[in-house]
Amino acid sequence: MPRYHPDKFRLKSSMMRPEMPMGLIERRPPLETQQSTIWTRRQQAVCVRRAYKKYGQSSNPHVILDGLNMTVPKGCIYGLLGASGCGKTTLLSCIVGRRRLNAGEIWVLGGKPGSTGSGVPGPRIGYMPQEIALYGEFTIRETMQFFGMINGMNPEQVDEKIEFLLKFLQLPPASRPVKNLSGGQQRRVSFAAALLHNPELLILDEPTVGVDPVLRQGIWDHLVHLTKDGGTTVIITTHYIDETRQAHMIGLMRGGKFLAEESPTSLLHKYNCQSLEDVFLKLSVIQNRGKRRRSSILHDITAAIAVPETSPVPAVEALNSICDNTSEMSGEFGDSISPVPLSKRMSICSMQVNNVEMELPPEANIKMSLFDRCKLYQSHHMRALIWKNFLWMWRNVAVMMFIVGLPVAQIVLFCLSIGKDPYGLHLAIVNHETNNKTCPPTDSCELTQLSCQYLYQIELRRQVLDYFDDEESAFRAVKLGKAWGALSFTSNYSISLKERMDEGQSTPDFVIDDSIVSIWLDESNQQISTLLRRDLLFAFQDFATTLAATCNFSTKAVANPIKFNRPIYGPFIPNFTDFAAPGVILTIIFFLAVALTSGAMLIERNEGILERSLVSGITGIEVLLGHVVCQLLIMVFQSLMVIAFALIVFDITNEGDVFWICLLTILTGLCGMCFGFVVSCITDSERNATYLAMGSFLPIVMLCGIIWPVEGMHATMKSLSFILPLTQSTESMRSMLARGWPITEPSVYIGFCSTLIWISVFLTSSILLIKFKKG
Ligand SMILES: Nc1ncnc2c1ncn2[C@@H]1O[C@H](COP(=O)(O)OP(=O)(O)OP(=O)(O)O)[C@@H](O)[C@H]1O
Q1: How far is CA 436 from CA 287, 451, 738, 744, in A?
Q2: Is 393 in the same domain as 448?
Q3: 436 shares a domain with 391
Q4: Which residue intervals define the domain ABC transporter in the entry (predicted)?
Q5: Ligand 1 contact, 599 CB (< 6 A)
């Protein structure tokens, strides 16, 4: 069950305000005395005192709210008016608990927004942000179902409400996707979502933009109806100043302050104007005059404060005078600002401003058990988020299939293109023994054809032999890039080799020289030259072995004095695919998870949906968990597919336990997801997230021993590599795949531990960033 059922609070509010039903304005104190009336917190839906809010650095602050006071009585419609950019949205964000003031206080429905047990943000509030903040892929009904679920409504209640709202707001059928609606219709759906759960406080940021005059009137009539019994309070911003004539009270905002905060009729009467726009203009002129006046007072007070030691009394008088003047201005502008800096102003004038009871009203002390306080999530929130995430995936099925299939495509690409030995390499051959004629493929024991036997072994390794008449033309071929190396045989190669084999130690030097194959390689490509050297050596070993077996030659004299026996781990001829596969599998899963998670979170945030959900009472941790649950399923599937393709289809060497291999891959994906959360928390746009993800990709890949063994790195890089998220897990994966080591081996379990540590680091960082990254 939700903690704050709307009906429960509605009941409470109406019980508390039996004297505030219809005709709120008429029942208020006379207009002239309203300014000085002390509304107790019990009667206030919103109370803002000395609000100060700035953006930017302290050295160059952009002050948005400058000592603003605001009082919204319960059960009224409060029109918040002001020029574009004056700070209305900022003020509303502070009221709903999404931004923090730099100084001052806000009380909403009896509690401080964001404090435990205040219910704000939460279902006590209905918030319609300025942007549409809806999922375009969802239908109107699904949109309502989502917000209904968040607010703890059951499906029947939602259906009932949808029917009413569709009719009332003249919306198309509920099965229409939001993205196919006109701009005005989308705004009305957004409005409907805010109204859905009968909140106590309705905050509407420009709900009538793009709405025709008839419907606009209908919306206002509905707001009047909602506030009729005093159970609902509405704060509304609009650019159509004159439509707020129907509001019970309006606050005219300018330069971070309120020019006035009164009922529209009172304002028109007081300033003797025909329209509220004229009142606004008049007050702006008065405010400008006031500023000039205050600036001259400031000049006086500065002079007075400058001589405190010699003349303390005038300074005190001057301070008193500024308070008096501020007080006067306060009355004039419905505000309490003064030209002295905020901290000084607060202490000097606190007596005049602080005319509001400070005790916490009963509804703020909503009892919450320790269990409730420690709960990481609420089940109906999680249900709504998971349902929404799956629905979003279903609606974007083509994108999702691409995302699911991407890692498989990548591992297929890797296995088909990386790590196989190069073949078809051209070698320039100068064979004086056969007068530079092409050798027939042979392993005959004819003495004159020993060079041909060796060349035959090279050809068996799928390299291409091109014959040249002399060394000079062979070198030219290498220099022109037409061959990777040149091989030259002397005219009496076979005889010399035979003699060397027969005579062993006593072979004369000139015979040894003639029995040597001279090789010149193009070493510009390290991988090719290394593998070519290996092929030439192995070809010679096979050639010598064949000679010994078929021609009864003693090959000891030409055999390599070092013997490599059967390897302890790995195949006799290791391949690069086996070396790179562990790192590549983990990298693919890690970075796709980063992209998927950060992308999903940023889309949600930039379209305003995250903000709206958070105002509905969903916590950052719940949003995170909602994504973890849905994306974990995708990621587990991706991981299993990648492992299956690597081990079964492409037969990558595996000596280990598949369970642990899969588990490590899934944990690495989870780690990537958590990193994705961090990326989405510290960046504002998809572009910056892409830069950050790409920027971290290369260092991680380069330093984690995926491309090159960590053992070969510079000492500093080695230390850095040690702590990176993929280094230990890659080593662990390699130990399992290539050596078949169990989880009990340190190099295996350290990989698991390192991944778990990184998961907790990323998760904690993102939770902290979500919690504390408020404007
Ligand atoms: N996150 C932010 N960082 C820096 N400045 C900001 C930020 N958000 C808003 N501002 C600035 O604060 C000022 C007030 O913005 P706000 O959105 O509150 O105005 P508004 O009165 O709601 O305007 P409008 O009626 O056009 O929606 C603007 O100058 C805006 O550029």
Answers
A1: 103, 11, 45, 61
A2: no
A3: no
A4: 46-280
A5: no
Do 611 and 674 have their domain in common?
yes
CA 115 to ligand 1 centroid distance, Å: 25
Do 608 and 544 fall within a single domain?
Answer: no
Note the maximum CA span of the chain. Answer: 127
Q: Phi, psi at residue 638, to the nearest 5°?
A: -60, -45
Which atom of ligand 1 sits closest to the CA of residue 90? 18
Q: Would you list the DSSP string of 103-159? A: EEEEEETTB-TTSTTS-TTTTTEEEE-SS--S-TTSBHHHHHHHHHHHTT--HHHHH
* Residue 377 DSSP class: -
Q: Whose CA is nearest to atom 26 of ligand 1?
A: 84
Token representation of residue 144: 């309502």
> Three-state SS across 697-760?
HHHHHHHCCCCCCHHHCCHHHHHHHHHCCCHHHHHHHHHHHHHCCCCCCHHHHHHHHHHHHHHH
Ligand 1 pocket, residue 61 CB under 6 Å: no
Q: Which helix (H) or strand (E) element contains residue 540?
A: helix 526-550
CA 754 to chain centre: 22
pLDDT of residue 109: 87
402 and 541 assigned to the same domain: no
Amino acid (1-letter code) at residue 4: Y
Residues of the chain with pLDDT under 70: 1-43, 290-375, 441-448, 504-505, 552-561, 773-775
Considering only CA atoms, which residue is closest to atom 29 of ligand 1? 85
Structural domain includes residue 249: no
CA 106 to centroid of ligand 1, rounded, Å: 19
Name the residue range of residue 588's domain.
380-415+575-773
Question: Which one of 519, 551, 583 terminates a domain?
Answer: 551
Ordered strands of the 103-108 beta sheet: 62-73, 44-55, 103-108
Q: Are 74 and 21 in contact (CB under 8 A)?
A: no
Nearest CA to ligand 1 atom 7: 55
**What residue's CA is closest to ligand 1, atom 17?**
89
Q: At what angle do helices 620-644 and 658-682 cross, to 10 degrees?
A: 140
Which residues, in sequence order, are CB contacts of 108 under 8 Å at separation 6+? Answer: 45, 46, 47, 95, 96, 97, 118, 120, 125, 201
The pLDDT assigned to 320 comes to: 35
Burial class (CB in 10 A: 0-12, 13-18, 19+), 606: middle
User: Does the beta carbon of 90 lie inside 6 Å of ligand 1?
Assistant: yes
Atom 1 of ligand 1: nearest residue by CA position: 775
Judge whether 369 lies within some domain. no
CB–CB of 19/338 below 8 Å?
no
Q: How far is the CA of 601 from the centre of ligand 1 (A)?
A: 23
Same domain, 411 and 441: no
Do 580 and 455 share a domain, yes or no?
no
The domain tally of the chain equals 3
Q: Which of 517, 551, 585 is the last residue of a domain?
A: 551
**CA-wise closest residue to 348 among 293, 292, 301:** 301
Res 639: pLDDT:
94
Identify whether 246 is part of a domain: no
Cβ–Cβ under 8 Å, residues 602 and 680: yes
Three-state SS at 249:
strand
Which backbone phi and psi does 568 adopt, to 5 degrees?
A: -75, -45
Q: Could you tell me if 636 and 690 lie in one domain?
A: yes
| Structure tokens, 327 | 């007080």
Ligand 1 atom closest to 91 (CA): 18
Q: How far apart are CA 242 and CA 545, in angstroms?
A: 101
129 lines ligand 1 (CB under 6 A): no
**Contact 775 CB / ligand 1 (< 6 Å):** yes
Per-residue pLDDT at 372: 60
On whether residue 239 sits in a domain, the answer given is no
Report the pLDDT value the prediction gives residue 304, as an integer from 0 to 100: 45
pTM, 2 dp:
0.72
Cα separation, 198 vs 20, in Å, equals 18
Q: How many CA atoms lie within 13 A of 111 on its CB side?
A: 21
Spatial neighbors of 112 by CB under 8 A, at least 6 apart, are 105, 106, 118, 364
